[in-house]
Amino acid sequence: MRLGYVGLGMMGGAIARRLLSDHKLRVFDLKPAAMEPFAQAGAIVTQSPAALAAECDLVLTCLPTSAEVRQAIFAADGLGQGLAKGGVIVDMTTGDPLATRAMAAELAASGRDLIDAPISGGPAGAAAGTLAIMVGAPKPIFERCLPALRAISPNVFHCGEVGAGHTMKLVNNVVAATTRQVTFEALALGVKNGLDFATCVEVLSKGSGCNYTLTNTMPLFMKDPSRLSFTMALMLKDVRLATQLARDTGVPMPMCGLAHETLLAGVASEGPGVDNMRLLKRYERAAGVRIVNDARW
Fold this sequence. Notes:
The chain starts with a strand and ends in a 10-residue tail after the last helix. The chain is of the alpha/beta class. The radius of gyration is 20 Å and the shape is globular. The protein folds into 2 domains: 160 residues, NAD(P)-binding Rossmann-like Domain (Rossmann fold, 3-Layer(aba) Sandwich); 121 residues, N-(1-d-carboxylethyl)-l-norvaline Dehydrogenase, domain 2. Helix 2 links the parallel strand 2 and strand 3. 43% of the residues are buried. The chain has a 6-stranded parallel β-sheet. It has a 3-stranded mixed β-sheet with strand order 7-8-9, sandwiched between helices. The chain has 14 helices and 9 strands.
């Protein structure tokens, strides 16, 4: 199967590098500089999504939002212009399930397929091959794409029809965002009352309060608080999509709604492009305590 990858940002780039280790791969990104390392590693750089799709049976995308996915597919030089009938687009963006279903219906009318396969686990998980891949697709198309997805990670889950993968990812990310904020709040409490930050993280990681922020994110953060892995704006986008889906389908989510408002305030005060761990600054200020004693923080 001839593979292509569109979107070579932090996550897309990490996934494309993993695919490139075992597959011939065509790549495209709006930023030419992002494609240079892939060209040096043996990937075939293309001049447009249409040119890439014309030489591929399966194209994977990882872009900021569903709006960029629509542009990549339906623009004058988009994937839809180059992909042959029977071709498949696998969208790994954390996107809007409703937008994905609408795009899939448009493509299906011309004999091409779009499925969703968002991922969780960060760039480190992509490099290690441990990502969780959540797929929304008809079963026959899922089976067709499975070898390519398993080249990225063995943790591939068929969640249902088109849109189900994005729904599962929103469920995952709204849990991650909300538990992260509760963790920050509790760390402020502990440090304000005399506990050591590192000790709090270590003990919580072994107790019933354990969560992904403590076991996976905090160790990397404590080594380098200035690192960027996932921007606050992207986390806000994911939580916004989840809470919007909840409103649209009549699901009360008061705790996650509060997490959305806190992220909204965090983006306003800290900036959209900072890492989402920067939200911890708001809890430091609110509690009147310095939680992280590091010059880079």
